[in-house]
Write the structure tokens for this entry.
Amino acid sequence: MNYAFAERVNHMESSAIREILKVAESPDVISLAGGLPAPELFPIQEIQEAYNHVLGANDPSVLQYSTTEGYLPLREDIAEKMKEKGMHVSPDNILLTNGSQQGLDLIAKLFINPGDLIAVEDPTYLGAIQTFYSYQANFLTVPTDKEGINVDALETAIKLQQPKLIYLTPTYKNPTGVTLSLERRQHLAKILAKYNIPLIEDDPYGELRYSGPVIQPVKSFDTAERIIYLGTFSKTIAPGLRLGWVVASKEIIAKLVLAKQGTDLHTGTLLQRTTHYYLNNSQIEKHIETIRQEYGHRRDIMLKELKANFSGEVSWTEPSGGMFLWVSLPEHFNTVSLLPKAVEAKVAYVPGAPFYAKGGGLNTLRLNFSNSSPLQIQEGIKRLAQLFNK
Amino acid sequence: MNYAFAERVNHMESSAIREILKVAESPDVISLAGGLPAPELFPIQEIQEAYNHVLGANDPSVLQYSTTEGYLPLREDIAEKMKEKGMHVSPDNILLTNGSQQGLDLIAKLFINPGDLIAVEDPTYLGAIQTFYSYQANFLTVPTDKEGINVDALETAIKLQQPKLIYLTPTYKNPTGVTLSLERRQHLAKILAKYNIPLIEDDPYGELRYSGPVIQPVKSFDTAERIIYLGTFSKTIAPGLRLGWVVASKEIIAKLVLAKQGTDLHTGTLLQRTTHYYLNNSQIEKHIETIRQEYGHRRDIMLKELKANFSGEVSWTEPSGGMFLWVSLPEHFNTVSLLPKAVEAKVAYVPGAPFYAKGGGLNTLRLNFSNSSPLQIQEGIKRLAQLFNK
């Protein structure tokens, strides 16, 4: 049957790279490609205890339909957590979502008409490009450097092109690991207020700090309520739960609740009840510290190995946190066409090009250090060096 | 701040009725309004056992990111279940979703351009109207009678107005409890093939049969692959899990996977693994039989009480299954304006009007019999009779 799909389906692409990376899932390939946390660090026993408690308390409402906003005591937990990060919020400013990806999708649903312009960093999170693209958005890309997005360039772009929305991952960002400096955060908040433009601050990695100072989210400087903040438990508890949240003005939350109602009624009741129990009855701070220690160690190993194996023509970022770093090869390299050769050599990475909303970056690539053991990282970088140093 | 929302936000409405019904949540109001299963029947102990097993098996992948399509062994379970219902499907025809509401939303995303026409029964499921409306669809309503949608009227509407898509709940439907007859199912499948038009068969209540013959889903007659079937565990296991599935051609599933990827990456890994374990290690058939016995009993009580309390001017449906029946009052009644009086009299229902996509039905109302005890049902109908027999 020939289906008459909606216009937006032309904007949903199956990625060729995704297909190649499926091949890379074989156990003899060292994959530095994915964006997975280390499963051996998941607090599986504490999660089991939480499910046991919540399901054993003789309260069947944990399995019943519940409100779209989300479980109030969990929203209270999150509001407290957000206050520690300098945000002035109440539970009414919070909506629970199926991971922060759903937050992104609901915000896109709320703001984007076909043809609307979204300002993004160059490069930016691939999953955000895909979501915005599926709502038929156009992109305006803003250059970034070691201190994150160039805020002056962003201001010029706002003045000249009036984007509808800005999307940013300011902290230990995917894909480069770069963090927006404190000065730029303050400057950015002023610009948002001045031009009355909303910004999505996507912050999945903020808790994963290995060195450098604590930098509060941009939203903590946002006295004018221009920022919609996305948080998630995917990197601090586990991604397979699918639990995230949106922090925004009450007016935006009310609209997001309507959008979510039509989308999937609400996020799982049992999941929210269990997560609330887990947050209040386990040592999550200690658990996050364990993750920090281990990922920080893996980052150090990767940086050391890159230094030992690559010459001055190859450069890379040195992130203070997160799960990724970013490698730039000399201009004549094409990491997309080299990927099958890498997989043949039993190592995988993600080519940088798909992270550029408007093309470019063919000589770049993203490496993940959270999901491989130190030994795998050492061997993986050696295999990449053999490929790229030819 | 004034937000420049997308056009579609004008099509998302907060319902005044929903606000009134929030008041009706107080414990002294007998609510025949909601669409909730009976929580006292949830298999909470078996679900606890399943979580314990899955989380206790020393396999952290149950908490990791997983594929958008869903856990293969669970898709295999569902494919088997669908075969028993006469559908010729493999796991490749199945996508796991966050309840069947998400299936609806993803299908709308896939098919609906602003202004597209959707054919629906009159009345139809309110949540479907809201979802389609949020994609800026227009509606074409087709009359129904005791045997379900009038298939000849549907064919005429297809010829004259060429809708993009048809949405139907053929079995024990929400809101009326009516079931499409076998003859009409066969006829409908032929019409879909002839006019090459896709149909969504929403089947949340199919397992809840209390009397009358087993009638296979329309999709079992759909040799031309025109039907997208929506299933859910919300009524057979528990709605607070949020787990449903789509059955469709491989081409449609591939597109839905792309749409879901941008929407929320995937449905919870732990939830899917646990549900797979539950389905294979508990007596779900016996559990469903328990639900059937109890809901069937509650339906009988409600029908008996209606007969005892209302005269010939009031009529109602006599459903063979599901969770709802439908009451029609004399034309001069307005169930929307009467609702606050009902709540004052400590009984709640859902007015029928919102279930009509293009207006009408002011003298109708929906009653739920699954979520109240027999005593509450008896007392609730008496209170309604006092109100409506004045």
The CA atoms of residues 251 and 368 of chain A lie 38 Å apart.
